[in-house]
């Protein structure tokens, strides 16, 4: 059974809130202020470049946003800036009525021109958006008067997962790369908070009195940039922070009488991307043998200390009928050794397998600042050694990793847009295309027929036929894998009991930090 610390996600909201304790003030001394220790750099608040792309942000609203009261299901997508559900307007076309009377934080009025301009910018090559492939199914968004837009997709799938992006005023769209836009440090959105001040180590947000929805009772939100895991844990113990995210191995250390801990299930996977430029990992039987040689249950137990679930593909059980239980790998060392023998990889003098002068060895790179990726890399190397496979883990920077996908394995994470199964799977498993992210199927390995099935599934409307396609996709992938997927993570958080009635966390994407967990819907908190 999965271990839960503090409170169960699926429990009633009241269990999350707890009772008022001696800590009646936020760490900053105000009863309506919360101080959160953030592990990610502050700034970069540009939705056109990926900030808030899944519809959760204190600064921005999308046309729709995730809505759920548990983390065990894929969230529903509820209207936000959209006034209601999409209205069919023809094949693969939908009309989206917009909410009226909405103002941006700079006082300007929201209308259809802002939606059109925001999405056009994401698709503009001059803007160089990092998420252009996320909206690739959108053929066009056009204004239908000031209070509606028409959306055309290249698929019959539900359009809502592609309409979560935070909307900017059209006046704030710039004709240059998105990384250089003013909104990176001066966000202008329709969300419940506005940015009062920003410096490298601290961001201060204040609740808007003119927010179109219910005003936030948490009036002031302070993020402190604290990249070191141990330093964030200490900030909770010392009382200088009211909440933070921590890796599983540290979460128990902060639990106390007034500090609760909670884990949120996610579609955030960790796995090993394998290079085409290495003779061993280029061998499909070697990749299959590695998948059979890792005990994922033991990895979840020992490395994630129970906070996760085994992953054999990018499709989690939360996707219901689309999940294929028969496509999951079971550890089978004898079969793994037999596959390596069949492929001609025989043990050398030092125990490492060899074939035609090549050795069964590969360097495994991971982000040196990420302790969890380090632990997964070390565990994977230990699991491969009995098979005669030498994995050499090494921590480094993303700058180096980005240049080494051709010859090195990499500990990657994924699941950035999981509220559509198409987005969750397509870029990870499909053959690379010219505008693919460097993290999408880096080895460019694809089983025969897989691309065609992925394309057919992405064009299909939701229903039993699409679910069957995804079950077949998983089975096809499992026969000739491109990665070694390891686990879906549970994101672990600690928060100080300040007497708030909180909302329960939901199933989270790859992105986490203190914008998620108990705080993803902060504007709904009440006393």
Automatic annotation (TrEMBL):
Residues 77-429 form the Solute-binding protein family domain. Residues 1-22 form the signal peptide. InterPro entries: Peptide/Ni-bd, SBP_5, SBP_5_dom. Keywords: Signal, Transport. It holds the Pfam family SBP_bac_5. GO terms for molecular function: peptide transmembrane transporter activity. One of its GO terms (biological process) is peptide transport. GO terms for cellular component: ATP-binding cassette (ABC) transporter complex; periplasmic space. Belongs to the bacterial solute-binding protein 5 family. PANTHER family: OLIGOPEPTIDE-BINDING PROTEIN APPA, PERIPLASMIC BINDING COMPONENT OF ABC TRANSPORTER. This is ABC transporter substrate-binding protein. It comes from Mycolicibacterium iranicum.
């Amino acid at each position: 059974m999965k271990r839960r610390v503090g409170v169960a996600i699926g429990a009633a909201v009241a269990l999350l809130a707890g009772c008022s304790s001696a800590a009646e003030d936020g760490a900053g001394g105000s009863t309506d202020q919360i101080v959160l220790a953030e592990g990610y750099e502050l700034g970069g608040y540009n939705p056109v470049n990926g900030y808030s792309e899944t519809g959760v942000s204190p600064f921005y609203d999308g046309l729709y946003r995730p809505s759920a009261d548990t983390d065990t299901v894929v969230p529903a997508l509820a209207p936000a800036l959209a006034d209601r559900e999409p209205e069919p307007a023809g094949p693969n076309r939908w009309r989206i009525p917009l909410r009226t009377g909405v103002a941006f934080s700079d006082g300007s009025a929201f209308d259809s021109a802002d939606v059109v301009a925001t999405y056009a910018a994401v698709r503009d090559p001059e803007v160089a958006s990092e998420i252009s492939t996320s909206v690739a199914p959108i053929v066009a968004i056009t204004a239908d008067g000031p209070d509606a837009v028409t959306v055309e997709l290249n698929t019959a799938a539900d359009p809502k997962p592609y309409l979560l992006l935070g909307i900017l005023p059209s006046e704030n769209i710039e004709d240059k790369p998105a990384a250089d836009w003013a909104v990176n440090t001066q966000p202008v959105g329709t969300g419940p908070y506005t940015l009062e001040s920003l410096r490298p180590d601290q961001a201060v947000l204040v609740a808007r009195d003119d927010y179109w929805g219910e005003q936030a009772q948490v009036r002031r939100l302070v993020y402190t940039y604290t990249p070191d895991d141990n330093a964030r844990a200490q900030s909770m113990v010392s009382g200088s922070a009211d909440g933070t995210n921590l890796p599983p191995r540290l979460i128990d250390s902060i639990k106390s009488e007034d500090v609760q801990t909670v884990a949120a299930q996610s579609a955030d996977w960790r796995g090993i991307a394998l290079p085409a430029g290495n003779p061993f990992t280029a061998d499909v039987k070697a990749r299959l043998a590695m998948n059979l040689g890792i005990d994922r249950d033991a990895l979840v137990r020992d490395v994630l200390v129970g906070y996760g679930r085994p992953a054999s593909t990018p499709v989690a059980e939360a996707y219901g009928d689309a999940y294929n239980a028969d496509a999951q790998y079971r550890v089978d060392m004898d079969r793994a050794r037999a596959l390596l023998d069949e492929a001609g990889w025989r043990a050398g003098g030092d125990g490492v397998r060899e074939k035609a002068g090549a050795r069964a060895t590969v360097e495994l790179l991971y982000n040196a600042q990420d302790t969890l990726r380090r632990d997964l890399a070390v565990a994977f190397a230990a699991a491969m050694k009995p098979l005669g496979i030498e994995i050499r883990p090494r921590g480094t920077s993303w700058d180096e990793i980005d240049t080494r996908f051709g010859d090195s394995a990499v500990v990657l994470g994924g699941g950035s847009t999981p509220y559509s199964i198409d987005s969750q799977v397509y870029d990870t498993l499909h053959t690379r295309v010219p505008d693919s992210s460097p993290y999408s199927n880096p080895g460019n390995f694809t089983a025969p027929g897989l691309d065609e099935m992925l394309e057919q599934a992405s064009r299909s409307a939701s229903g039993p036929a699409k679910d069957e396609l995804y079950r077949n996709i998983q089975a096809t992938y499992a026969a000739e894998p491109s990665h070694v997927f390891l686990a879906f993570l549970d994101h672990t958080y600690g928060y100080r009991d300040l007497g708030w009635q909180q909302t329960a966390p939901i199933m989270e994407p790859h992105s986490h930090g203190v914008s998620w967990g108990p705080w993803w819907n902060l504007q709904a908190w009440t006393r």
